[in-house]
Amino acid sequence: MASSSAPKVPVYSVNDLKSTTDDALVPYLCNLPQPYTFTQDHSKSNVRFILGYSAVAIAAFTFYADRKLGWEATTSPWIIAAVFSYFVLNSVLTYWVWAVEAGEVFRGKRKSGETISIQSFAKKHSPLYKLRIVYTSPSNKVLQEKEIETPFTKWFSAEGFFHPEPLRSWLATEVEVLRLAAKETERKTGGVGSVVGVQDSKNRK
Asked: Angle at CA 107, nearest 5°, toward 160 and 27?
């Protein structure tokens, strides 16, 4: 049965397969059973949005100046400075996406201070989904660092429907903290719960 949380995607579109899979990581990692739940860190994406929206705002301003004030206004020093700022912001944004975020699709922290960073990669025309996972202690000591890959067909049907459970099971077999979370889920549900996990009943009250 197809998952109701994700649409059917074209099976030959690597970008669609990757983005759908990437999007499934957040609800999985943020809804693990306590004490394994991760809270997503949005700091890098916030910087990306600020840079992007600032560049768009400058572009809109210069377009308005050109349309409303005429060509003479666009040659003024403040318009030239705005155009220069636009190119600087776009350059910084490009650097941020490729060098700082570098394919990172999730960064989160547990209440106990451990942090997990996940980068995802997929090559054009390749059926493989690759992850680089770094799990660190509160003191920033690397507890596990691993690169894993497997075909998208593990969790996508031939028709393009996404099934999250095989993805979660794969991650739980490869990443130690997720394996422990899966065992905690099984303990709390008597083996009938989803791999995604359940929150403590105390937290639901």
From this structure: 45
- Contact status, residue 37 vs residue 110, Cβ threshold 8 Å: yes
Query: What mean pLDDT, rounded, does the chain reach?
Result: 87
Distance, CA of 170 to CA of 113 (rounded, Å): 24
Tokens 């350059």 locate to: 91
What does the pLDDT read at residue 68?
73
117-139 per-position pLDDT tens digit: 999 999 998 999 999 999 999 99
Question: Per residue in 53-86, pLDDT tens?
Answer: 999 999 888 887 777 776 666 667 877 888 899 9
**Cα–Cα distance for residue pair 149/59, rounded to 1 Å:** 40
Taking the C-alpha atoms of residue 117 and residue 157, their distance in angstroms, rounded to an integer, is 28
Query: Residue 132: enclosing H or E segment and its boundaries?
Result: strand 128-136
Beta bridge partners of 135: 116, 144
Write down the pTM of the prediction.
0.80
Cα–Cα–Cα angle for 169, 170, 171, rounded to 5 degrees? 90
133: left (phi over 0), alpha (psi -120 to 50) or beta: beta
Place of tokens 């090559």: 123
Q: Which amino acid is at 59?
A: A
Order of strands across the sheet that contains 128-136: 39-40, 104-109, 115-121, 128-136, 142-151
